[in-house]
From TrEMBL:
<dbReference type="GO" id="GO:0045944">
    <property type="term" value="P:positive regulation of transcription by RNA polymerase II"/>
</dbReference>
<comment type="subunit">
    <text>Efficient DNA binding requires dimerization with another bHLH protein. Binds DNA as a heterodimer with MAD1, MAD4, MNT, WBSCR14 and MLXIP. Can also bind DNA as a homodimer.</text>
</comment>
<dbReference type="InterPro" id="IPR036638">
    <property type="entry name" value="HLH_DNA-bd_sf"/>
</dbReference>
<keyword id="KW-0678">Repressor</keyword>
<dbReference type="GO" id="GO:0046983">
    <property type="term" value="F:protein dimerization activity"/>
</dbReference>
<protein>
    <recommendedName>
        <fullName>Max-like protein X</fullName>
    </recommendedName>
</protein>
<keyword id="KW-0010">Activator</keyword>
<keyword id="KW-0539">Nucleus</keyword>
<dbReference type="GO" id="GO:0000981">
    <property type="term" value="F:DNA-binding transcription factor activity, RNA polymerase II-specific"/>
</dbReference>
<dbReference type="Pfam" id="PF00010">
    <property type="entry name" value="HLH"/>
</dbReference>
<comment type="function">
    <text>Transcription regulator. Forms a sequence-specific DNA-binding protein complex with MAD1, MAD4, MNT, WBSCR14 and MLXIP which recognizes the core sequence 5'-CACGTG-3'. The TCFL4-MAD1, TCFL4-MAD4, TCFL4-WBSCR14 complexes are transcriptional repressors. Plays a role in transcriptional activation of glycolytic target genes. Involved in glucose-responsive gene regulation.</text>
</comment>
<dbReference type="GO" id="GO:0005737">
    <property type="term" value="C:cytoplasm"/>
</dbReference>
<feature type="region of interest" description="Disordered">
    <location>
        <begin position="1"/>
        <end position="53"/>
    </location>
</feature>
<dbReference type="InterPro" id="IPR052207">
    <property type="entry name" value="Max-like/E-box_TFs"/>
</dbReference>
<dbReference type="GO" id="GO:0061629">
    <property type="term" value="F:RNA polymerase II-specific DNA-binding transcription factor binding"/>
</dbReference>
<dbReference type="GO" id="GO:0005654">
    <property type="term" value="C:nucleoplasm"/>
</dbReference>
<keyword id="KW-0805">Transcription regulation</keyword>
Amino acid sequence: PALLMENARKGSIVSRANSIGSTSASSVPNTDDEDSDYHQEPYKESYKDQRRRVRTQAEQKRRDAIKKGYDDLQAIVPTCEQQDFSIGSQKLSKVIVLQKTIDYIQFLHKEKKKQEEEVSTLRKDVMALKIMKVNYEQIVKAHQDNPNEGKDQVSDEVKFNVFQGIMDSLFQSFNASISVTSFQELSACVFSWIEEHCKPQTLRDIVIGVLHQLKSQLY
């Protein structure tokens, strides 16, 4: 009797499991037929998606162009290639790259202005040399045309003595009036000395006095 009861219990469990399985299977739709009847349509990009894609591409191009610009600046500006110990081995930020570029451009402007001033000075020197050359050529030509002219002129020694006498007189007043304790004081004293001791009448008196002293050499 116990064996019969156990077999009956097992049979009941199996029949219930089969009924559950059949019920679950009947609830699942028949997808095989539906898959055979389904035709997938090609995906069509909407206008909104297309605009989003275009904007994304444009933004990427803009970012690439900016990155290339900063890379070019770092390659061109010498100060960007120098090691900055304040930031170590870190990559230069965009702000630092721009600041170094601005500093370098300002440096180039100053150098350009300095070179232009040097060129202007050299041009003036060249012009002065040309004028001197023309004058000396005229003097040589005049001397060649009149070789006897100038025999009665004052000798170079006498002219030097006249010049020396004038300079000695000027130096005496210069040495008494000028202080060299500082460059600022020297500059101020020089202008004051010129205004007081280099007036036309003062220079005329000095020249006349020197000529009187050297009149024995002149005649």
